[in-house]
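**Backbone shape codes:**
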Amino acid sequence: MPQTTSTTAESAAVLHAEGVSDEEFRAAMSRLAAGVVLVTAQEPPLSEDGPRGEDVGMTATAFMSVSLDPPLVLVSLRNGSRMDDLLAEQPLWAASLLAEGQRHIAGRFAMKGRVSDRLLFQDLAFTRGALTDAPLIGGALAALECRTERRVVAGDHTLVIARVLSTTLPSAGDAPLTYFRGRYRHLS
């Protein structure tokens, strides 16, 4: 069995019972290339006859197909994040699979500590999903409208498994935006 060593005293200080530090785990997983998705949903209105709720978006790289029959996808959300809290009460949401030229969108919605998503959507081209009313980002490789079927708490994240209700393929010729070693990349 190969032996791993910590590269810094800090990573050695946060070893888990299994012997892997946070930093070692992050370094290993950063070598797994992932597609980049913008997950969107709309907050429910405060009252039945009140104004539309605010649009919310989050960049995700932990997104995958789960099943063909029925069509299911999975997204991993940090526990207690705004999107985790929203999808706990709002079962309808969407995922836009970002194209290579949409790096700025991914970066915008990956910012921590933002006050409101309203400004983040302000100058973006998007349509509303017919089934979810969630924003579907223009120029994305594909857009999926989803309904949450199950939520599974897994460590410091929640795995949201959802049924795909509809798909659109607005952009066929672009390359995907990918995330590798902590940076957005393009395939070459």
Q: What stands out?
A: The longest helix spans residues 22-29. The two ends are 35 Å apart (CA to CA). The mean pLDDT is 87.
